[in-house]
């Protein structure tokens, strides 16, 4: 995909996020919207995957460590063809396979059940070690929240990834600077994030997480890096492209009502119309 196609796809994913959370009357829109461009690049450009064969042996693995942002994950999988986009409104409904957190047993394309913060990156590091032990070619990616970095388990996993020289492993940090209780540097600051990962012997790349040129360059740089894992620290905007959600911690885990849903979808329609003019 070219950059414009990626931008248009990301906008569709954002529509799916808002639709799913509104339908459920529950969920986490803010961090799903901030990560939508990262999800888009992973699923439409980076990952070696096949929606027709979700369990193919040589597929790249992705683990959503910040599992509460499943609306973004599901909207990406659906738009990529793993299951129908029409199923997104069933999110969190009784009997739906689209649970509040990713479930590897029931959702096509999900490689690891996740939700307990810190555990996703640990599982992903294990997958990357397995690939090295069995001389497999697949790469492993995990997406973390910046508030999640307050979990000690994250740094245990990072220590092991560097110790094992896992150059097949990429940790992406969605640095939107907000968690459920407010700004991360006010709650329990993980800054400077880049220096911490460098101290753990990661190759570190800082990017604007909404700029597809920078995203593309970062993932290519990660692939070219040998002998150590990579951390991509993506500076993002929580609630991106929904006017009343942007940079508002209150939208970490709040669903829009009917009126707010209409405003949010109108915002995203405007973004889509602007992209069509390019």
TrEMBL record:
Protein's UniProt keywords contain Cell division: no
Cross-referenced Pfam families: Transketolase_N (PF00456)
Entry keywords, A to Z: Thiamine pyrophosphate
Xref: Gene3D superfamilies: 3.40.50.970
Domain named Transketolase N-terminal: residues: 7-261
Transmembrane listed as a keyword: no
InterPro entries per UniProt: THDP-binding, Transketolase_N
Needed cofactors: thiamine diphosphate
Family named by the database record: Belongs to the transketolase family.
Name of protein: Transketolase
Organism: Ohessyouella blattaphilus
Lineage, highest ranks first: Bacteria, Bacillati, Bacillota, Clostridia, Lachnospirales
